[in-house]
Amino acid sequence: MTDSKTLAINTIRAEHRALGAVINNMKAMLVEIREARMKMDFPLFWSMVYYIDAFPNRLHHPKEDDWLFSRLQQRTNTADMLIAELQRQHHGEPVALGNIRRDLGNLEAGLPAGLETLIQTVGLYAEATWKHLRTEEHDMLPLAEAHLTAADWDDIANAFAKNADPLTGLNDTETLSLLFHDIVRKTPAPLGLGKQ
Fold it and tell me: Among 6, 45, 64, 60, which residue's Cα sits nearest to residue 176?
């Protein structure tokens, strides 16, 4: 049986990988579109934007802020500056995604330079996200492993497991997992499983 610390850390890393996969697909699709090897599928791209919006803002960041970061601050002040920076980045996420929405809408409306602008905006978002995820995994998680108690890890693992949506009967994790698999299924090969 997996202990709570391993379960919580594995969940955090798995969520990072899923988010990273969608962002990678966005970037790769835009390159394929620019090189005229793929046509833009706006509904698919909008679903990717929705996924990266819903995933960090509704599911991932609140659990980190309310449980992982909070518990670590209760145990040590060693991580205070790091936590403050990661939370600042969490709060900046809606602005970055708003820029992607704006540029995707401009492209869909046919505005000049829409594709190049969107490529640049998605690239900046991806770069910031990679840096953020690396910091959490390489700096934050080792501090958490060093300072949190078994009871802390139990609470953190439980928090990451509880994301129930009372309207659908599915939890947020299941709903977003279904959306993730739908994105992979619809993304044209070789980036996904869809038709070229």
Answer: 60
Structure confidence by residue, pLDDT tens digits, 170-194: 455 566 566 666 676 666 665 554 5
Asked whether 29 and 191 are in contact (CB, 8 A), the reply is yes
Residue where the block lists tokens 């509704």: 58
How much is the average pLDDT of 79-99? 92
Q: At what angle do helices 114-135 and 80-108 cross, to 10 degrees?
A: 160
∠ CA(89), CA(94), CA(98), 5° rounding?
Answer: 130
Amino acid residing at 119: I
pLDDT greater at residue 51 or residue 166: 51
Report helix, strand or coil for 194. Answer: strand
C-alpha torsion 15→73→150→3, nearest 10:
10
- C-beta neighbour count of 81 within 10 angstroms: 9
